[in-house]
Design goal:
Strand content: 15-25%
Largest sheet: 6 strands, parallel
Radius of gyration: 17 Å
Distance between the termini: 16 Å
Order of helices and strands: EHEHEHEHEHEHHH
Number of strands: 6
Number of helices: 8
Structural class: alpha/beta
Helix content: 40-55%
């Protein structure tokens, strides 16, 4: 009797690797939740916009409606066309494929699928140095101290000015994403 194996596609296996035109410089994907540190992200982006010309997209999901009201008001986001709310996962990954850099500022993630998806979509990553982020990205990310808005700003500013580094990180991340596919996990853990 032949056994049937079934793979659950809630990982990154379903994301096709391709080289899309990268017309978005920075993408941030998160929710209105305190540990995604939106105040830090928006403050840093405001500073960057004063010194650099770049395109960005913020993909935000609802979670804490009070925090959403506070942030939308504080940063005058109501009519900002660069902020997109409540997209389906396929729409998010399509935007990631068009993005050069993922900004990842979470202070708490058990397994940050956003990082894995960004790697699969050939993004360079600027990430907080918390949780498993260093383990997943290894030396192929730019890490900032989550307690320092200045550090986030400086790391973003430096990477935005270095197209060669962006391309190198993007290529390595795309290649390294293969180790996080369910098919690889199945082979490694279950010896199937």
């Amino acid at each position: 009797k032949k056994e049937k194996k079934i793979l659950a596609y809630h990982g990154i296996d379903h994301i096709e690797k391709n080289i899309s035109t990268k017309d978005i410089d920075i993408i941030f994907v998160g929710k209105f939740i305190h540990y995604h540190n939106l105040n830090l992200v928006l403050s840093s982006l405001e500073k960057l916009k004063k010194n650099k010309d770049f395109k960005y997209k913020l993909v935000l999901g609802d979670f804490d409606t009070n925090l959403k009201k506070e942030i939308v008001t504080r940063y005058n986001l109501r009519n900002n066309k660069d902020i997109i709310y409540n997209l389906k996962n396929t729409e998010v990954t399509n935007l990631m494929k068009r993005s050069k850099i993922l900004l990842f500022s979470s202070s708490y993630e058990a397994c940050p699928f956003t990082l894995l998806e960004a790697m699969r979509c050939s993004c360079a990553v600027v990430s907080s140095d918390s949780g498993p982020n260093r383990e997943i990205l290894r030396n192929n990310g730019v890490f900032f101290d989550l307690k320092s808005e200045v550090d986030m700003y400086l790391k973003m500013n430096d990477l935005l000015g270095d197209e060669v580094k962006i391309k190198n990180l993007s290529s390595i991340n795309s290649h390294n994403s293969d180790i996080y596919k369910w098919s690889e996990t199945t082979k490694n853990i279950m010896n199937l």
